[in-house]
Amino acid sequence: MSLRALAADPIEDTPRAELEAELRKLRKINRVLMDRVERDVDAQGSNAYALFRTAVTLEAKVSERTAELAKLTHQMLHEISQRRLAERALLAAKAEAEGANHSKTRFLAAASHDLHQPLNAARLFLGALADEIVTERARDLLGRVDAALDTVDDLLSALLDISRLDAGAWPVNLAPVPVWPVLARLLEEYGPQAQAVGIDLRVVPCSAVLHTDRGLLERVLRNLISNAIRYTAAGRVLVGCRRRGTHVRVEVWDTGVGIPTDRRGRIFEEFHRLGNAPRNDGKGLGLGLAIVDRIARLLDLGLDVGSEIGRGSCFSVLVPRGEAGGAMEEPAPVDLAPPDSLAGRRVLMIENDDSAVEGMRALLETWGCGLVAGASVAAALARLAPGAAPPDVLIVDYHLDDGALGVDAVGELRAHFGAGLPAMVISSDRSAETRARLKAEGLPFLPKPTSPARLRAMMSYLLRQDAAV
Predict the structure, then answer these.
(1) How far apart are CA 67 and CA 55, in angstroms?
(2) pTM of the model
(3) Which range, of 138-152, 253-267, 414-428, averages the lowest pLDDT?
(4) CA dihedral 445, 450, 452, 455 (to 10 degrees)
(5) What is the CATH architecture of 175-326?
(6) Residue-by-residue DSSP string for 90-107
(7) Average pLDDT for residues 460-469, to the nearest whole number?
(8) Could you tell me the pLDDT band of residue 340, with boundaries at 50, 70 and 90?
(9) 346-468 has which fold?
């Protein structure tokens, strides 16, 4: 390979620099030698023998330096060749690892969907069974089964989240985020839970605006607050913010059991639990902090932890500050208080899982509702009696047979029955893309497995909205 070709190769910037430095060194030596020859010639005059001896010496030195340069060039080319091979191997290994990660994510997404289907049916059947149970002992057992289903659901969701974060498949939407509405929502969500176990949960108001992904930031803080409550036997959990130049440090303090120094490096590993939680609530999966760590790296947040045994811990994330002018207003909370009764309401369901349909039917019958269901719009409409009145509510799965989507099914049914027909989408697909699509269509979303209480509250809300029009 010529020196011109070597210099043109962008991969070899560092070897080229070394080679050019060596050439400069040789040129300098050449100049020194030539100066010496000229001085010798001047000093020796026309002495032919002296001139000959000087020329021979010069030729030997030039040959020696040329050989050194050739050897150096050969070494450089060999190193470049080896570096190219190593780089290609690294790129191939990276591509293979990324492919494996994406395959794992797709597998877990498919497995999560398939496992959520029977879990959803089980949750609906349990909801129907609850109205048939009269003894306290049976109700207690039913509650334990329901809690076990919650744990399985949480585990599946957490594993899928970790897989998507590892594969870099989680979309990030950076925008101005007022921090106080986020903290106020978390206080409303976790306040009753903390109060129930004797923990004083406090949130310090803050007017700062952050520049981050709101949903992912909420996920981080939700996991940190949940952990703080779990590992605090008595006392309080405090959430607040401190301005740090161009950033804001969001901190979660607790008066809990603390973390041993030698285990702080492992608390962000998957399935690692300290085992010293004062309450065994059955919901500590050892994945919450692993998700926090991955989200912090994804958003480039500074994640820090300090702790003292017996006195408590402080987890914090350092978030860039945002511009207040671009912040979105906090939407008003939706009142989902159910009405007195849903009796007599007619529900049309598009669902391609038979167990989910039967579970929904059993649950709705306990509420006095009628259900007509089909795996597609055409199948559902075919099962309606001729001239039947429009349904009161649509319940549609997001992913249907043959690649059909629930949003399109809602559009078809509204074109058939009327644009104002209340509808909701239920799915085990909890991805940000799906939620964004449903939000754009103005369709409420419930994840599978669906809580009967949340389902009833959503149905009631939709019917109340329809009555107000």
Answers:
(1) 18
(2) 0.53
(3) 138-152
(4) 10
(5) 2-Layer Sandwich (3.30)
(6) HHHHHHHHHHHHHHHHHH
(7) 79
(8) very low
(9) Rossmann fold (3.40.50)
